[in-house]
UniProtKB/TrEMBL annotation:
Residues 1-102 form the ABC transmembrane type-2 domain. Keywords: Cell membrane, Membrane, Signal, Transmembrane, Transmembrane helix, Transport. Pfam families: ABC2_membrane. Residues 1-23 form the signal peptide. It comes from Alkalihalobacillus alcalophilus ATCC 27647 = CGMCC 1.3604. It is a multi-pass membrane protein. Coiled coil: none annotated. This is Transport permease protein. It is found in: Cell membrane; Membrane.
Length: 105
């Protein structure tokens, strides 16, 4: 989840007020609800199934669930690491560049 912190830093640096930064991060709160955390994604409508299967929270939840229940985690661990690792790299670089730009002005 460290990567989400850097994403929020980048969003905060992109916005001009605290209120806007807060509002911009609000949709992230709903990602766990559009995942496999409460119901299997196979039971979702096709458009929601596609969204739930292709976002970072589903593999994270499936990995934690598998580790806690002792069930196979398949490739969910690698998907989780790829999602959050990629998100970290992109967010960190973006936040660093935005901070340097803001510091120069």
């Amino acid at each position: 989840m460290f990567s989400l912190n850097w994403l929020f830093v980048a969003i905060g640096l992109l916005t001009k007020s605290v209120e806007t930064a807060n509002a911009a991060t609000f949709p992230m709160l709903f990602l766990p609800y559009v995942s496999s955390s409460f119901i299997p994604t196979e039971t979702m409508p096709s458009w929601l199934h596609a969204l739930a299967e292709n976002q970072p929270m589903t593999p994270l939840i499936e990995t934690v669930r598998g580790l806690l229940l002792g069930t196979p985690i398949d490739n969910n661990l690698w998907l989780t690491l790829a999602w959050f690792g990629g998100l970290f790299i992109i967010s960190f670089v973006l936040a660093t560049l935005l901070f340097k730009k803001r510091k120069q002005n």
